[in-house]
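debug: dumping io for the single-chain case to check the tokenizer round-trip. Nothing else runs in this session.
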Amino acid sequence: MKRTSIAIMSSILLFASCKDATPEKKSDTSMTNNPLLTEWNTPFGVPPFDKIKSSDYLPAFKIALEENKQEIKQITENSEAPTFQNTIEALEFSGKNLNRLQRVFYAVNSANTDSILKIAAKEITPAIATHTDFINLNADLFKRVKAVYDQKDKLNLSPEETRLLNETHKRFVRSGINLQGEKQDRLREINTRLAGLGGDFGENLLDETNAFEYHTKDKKDLGNLPESLIALAAAEAKNRGHKDGWSFTLQRPSINPFLQSSPNRDARKALFDGYAMRANNNNENDNKAILIEMASLRLEKAKLLGYDSHAAYILSDNMAETPEAVYGFMNKLWPSALEMAKSEREALAKKMKSEGVSGTFTGSDWRHYVEKVRKERYNFDEEQTRPYFEVNAVRDGVFALANQLFGLTFKEMKNIPKWHKDQQVFEVVEADGSHLGIIYMDFFARESKRGGAWMNALRSQMNVNGMVTPIVTNNFNYPAPSGDSPSLLSFTEAETLFHEFGHALHGLFSNVKYESLSGTNVPRDFVEFPSQVMENWMSEPQVLRLFAKHYKTGEVIPDSMIKKMKDANSFNGGFATVEYMAAAFLDMAWHSKKDNMPTDANAFEKETMDKLGLIDEIIPRYRNTYFGHIFSSATGYSSGYYSYLWSEVLDADAFQVFKDTGNIFDPETAKRYRKMLSMGGSQPGMELYKGFRGAEPEIGPLLKKKGFVE
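debug: decoded output
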């Protein structure tokens, strides 16, 4: 997921300042005493997490905001004529402390929040939004930017400098700099309000997820749940105050295995409904009113900026370009995916009936009978594969793949500051022994961490006065080890590690001059491509043999099991595509509205799904009230959740390039691929891809991969 990309958000906010959030002036002593604002004398300049307290963030932000405001003032009050150096580069290089602070704060608040950080976020997030408007709606500053932009053809700029100038000018225009008077005032109000609402949405979702519990004392309810997950459920029960029994939560490492394993239909329904109704229970954590207001404000903002809809505004700066292009793309795939899902439903319902279970087959039955059908058809039991996917072995697998493709090695750093004791930290080293960057890996679920998996950039690469190397993070929600039981992953969970590591490589490989063009600062519908392409290697036998070894015996995963696993994974592909696409259609439905915004969130969701013909047994991967990708920040993935599927076209086509060489580790192809990633956002996404592929991507490899064509 980058994902969202906090990296993208941070790079945009690099330029921010604020006229309404000016703090009291602080002494140099207070700045020196705050570890967030001092020089970080740590290995490779990593954040000094061992010295940072949650209470340090808010005062540090107040100082950094004021500092950045003064930097902007120096640019606007410069008596010299505007130049690329004294305006565009000065703007690019401003906000060093603020940018660094934002990266650390948003990373920690997502992965290890507490009550102090939650309170701080309620003040910081709207202040940053106001701060951003101060810079992007600053008439004096834009006057200087435009003066440089208007003479760009005479400046003899390099391609990357030209890109920086164009992107800087475009950001001001897209932010509403040309609006005047009351319209611009209203835009500022909308931006601040959206930032606050997004934070509230995410906090409600986390609280609602953490509040749910299904507790049982009947071991029969556990079915064939692996011992490692049984131990984890017992520990969860103890943590929640029970003397015995097992507790299951709405975290995916807890709920999904239970839905697969438990023979207790009522228990499965309780957990399924708890997940499907998150933040939709008319209580203090309800998100319906929040998301309706956010969608309405986004539409109002789009119209102020001259667009028919929020989707039209967002997509005009993406590879897809228009809502019509997104709908056209998804409509090509939806009928085939839906028919496949219907066929799967028939097989699952038939299996349930054959067991003498009365009643109608429902969504809470789906995962349970998938496992039974897979076992019956392919003699495959996913639980038999978990011992081959111990979390550290899978980690070593992505490292081995990176070594095969790019010559990278990874040196663990034991004594380095971390935000949580469970984190693992590695130096990434080039084939010639030189330093490339640092990666933090945070594997396990906990109440202080939001759901899902994502990548952050704690520091992005740039090369102005010497190379600044990247520091990236990968974050997951895997089941933690419990007692003597290690963390054993499902195939899908292991695949997620490869996915997020692809985002990490995108950040690590960056080799550009300017920070705002580095790493994952690319269009939303390109950013998921480098992550998803890594998933293709995960299932290849050559790669599995590198790391998939039984955690007890060291036995390499047998070829017979690989074949069973690949055959079994071909079943339920319709479900996976349909539940994802239903969410993508829901995102587009909200944000393609041109007027008459819905006032009943549940009714609008049902109406949208009914138009698609979505079957009752499948719900969108994310329903309205827990669709954090599109509602837990001011913009996020709004009008962009389709990008995972769009990127699948790129990733399937790109992996085919490797396969066509006869060597999935082909060094020349890997070299071209790395060069593409190294360019970050210094070129448009399609130009980057064509530079690698030599042509635009074909959809054929994706259709074949999904089983829609032979």
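debug: round-trip ok. DSSP finds 29 helices and nine strands in the chain.
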